[in-house]
Design a protein that fits this description.
This protein is elongated. With 144 residues, the protein is mostly helical. It is 81% helix and 0% strand. It has a single domain, classed as YheA-like fold. The protein contains seven helices and no strands. Helix 2 packs antiparallel against helix 5 and helix 3 packs antiparallel against helix 4. Pfam families: Com_YlbF.
């Protein structure tokens, strides 16, 4: 049996392994380029400011000012989205998220499969041994 402490230690090791992957390296480089780019920094600052204004206008019921600010936000977002450096960053984020989801899914599936097999269950049906043993037998009349 493993303790929670053992599992967390292994998870930390897995995290270190994942941090040393090609996907994470690509993300780190893309993230650094984003922060080093003056144009991106200015657009991000403008976007944050506009978003705060939009929240304030909305909370004070200033619908016209809110709508105008939302249009400005869309324009800045479109400008950012049109920049190759931002596209690379989003791609890098997607690759890291995909890796995290793959690992999460693999862990979840392995735990589920281990539970099913260790209880004498059926992987094809996806039921534990207890569930299989206590399933109503609908084919009783056919077997008699």
């Amino acid at each position: 049996m493993y303790s929670k402490k053992d599992i967390v230690a292994e998870a930390k090791n897995l995290g270190k392994m994942m941090a040393a992957t090609e996907q994470v390296e690509f993300f780190k480089k893309a993230e650094a380029k984003i922060h080093e780019n003056q144009d991106v920094r200015e657009k991000m600052a403008s976007l944050k400011s506009l978003q705060k204004q939009a929240v304030n206008f909305q909370s004070y019921g200033k619908e016209r000012a809110y709508q105008m600010t939302e249009e400005k936000i869309k324009k800045v977002e479109a400008e950012l989205d049109g920049m190759p450096i931002v596209d690379q960053f989003k791609d890098a984020q997607g690759q890291v998220n995909e890796l995290l989801q793959m690992v999460s899914h693999a862990i979840s599936k392995t735990v589920t499969d281990e539970i099913i097999t260790s209880t004498g269950g059926n992987l094809l049906v996806g039921e534990t041994g207890a569930a299989m043993r206590n399933m109503p037998n609908q084919d009783k009349e056919e077997n008699e």
